[in-house]
Amino acid sequence: MRFMGDQSISSLLLGTGVQLLCMSFISIACALLGFLSPANRGGLLTATLLLFVLMGVPAGYGASRTFKSLRGVEWRALTLLTATAYPAAIFVVFTLLNLALWSHGSTGAVPAGTFVALLAMWFCVSLPLVFVGAFLGFKRPLPAPPTRTNEIPRQIPPQGWFLGRAVTMAVGGVLPFGAVFIELFFIMTSVWLQRFYYVFGFLALVLLILIITCAEISIVMCYFQLCAEDYHWWWRAFLTSGSSGLYLFGYSIMYFHSQLEIDGFVPTLMYFTYMAVFSTLFFLVTGTIGFYSCQKFVWAIYAAIKVD
After folding, report:
1. What is the pTM of this model?
2. Is the C-alpha dihedral spanning 144, 146, 152, 156 positive or negative?
3. What is the pLDDT of residues 23-44, one digit of tens each?
4. Contact predicate 23/48, CB 8 Å
5. Which residue stretches of the chain are H helix?
């Protein structure tokens, strides 16, 4: 199970992906049970933010388990990075966007008190929960590897063009995006055209289909890669299904020109900023699903190898 790449970055992405996936599951479940009403958009957004903060335990646990399996040492630095990297990036982006709204006198600008409350939730709730999850993840022992890894890396033979990273990303991203394409149209219509969205049962089914699709396409591409004697599957597994986020952002550009009538620099900036953030979220969630699916797959096939 040889890993090539930065241990901290991969663990950070996977930990954040686990956090976002758990948040999505619970948000849809609460909406499905009637606890969240789409008519109350503020309440829905507040509940989503609160769930993201409370899902710090799964984020720390997932990041620490991955980091430990990659033989990482500086777990405290990783935990702090997991707790701060994604929220800090989003906070900076929305602060700059809010400054643009303030400069134009827009009523949609977020008050300063809301920023203080968000910072308090981040440092007082999310950060400690991530450390709790990381502590639990590092305390739990890792399972024994199915096979022994050679100390000397084996040379990888030349690969065909159809196994290149760009090709696998293009093929692997289109299927997960296709699974949510129709539902994505109704969600974007609800958000940008001020229409209500009530079919959360169908949305839960689409989420399940998305998970299955990401897992299947990542496993198939990983199998082709291993058959070609290329054992660098870690990042490829994440990027194969995660590339669907690029398709989502491309679709948002088409949706902007075909469905919306937005004029002015600031409204256009708001739209593409929000869609870029949502595409990044989608990239992390689908990439995390693909990675863990491939990890289980590779573990299972190597465990089935019989060495005389």
Report:
1. 0.89
2. negative
3. 999 988 888 887 877 667 667 7
4. yes
5. 7-32, 41-54, 56-69, 75-103, 112-121, 127-139, 165-192, 200-227, 234-242, 244-259, 265-303
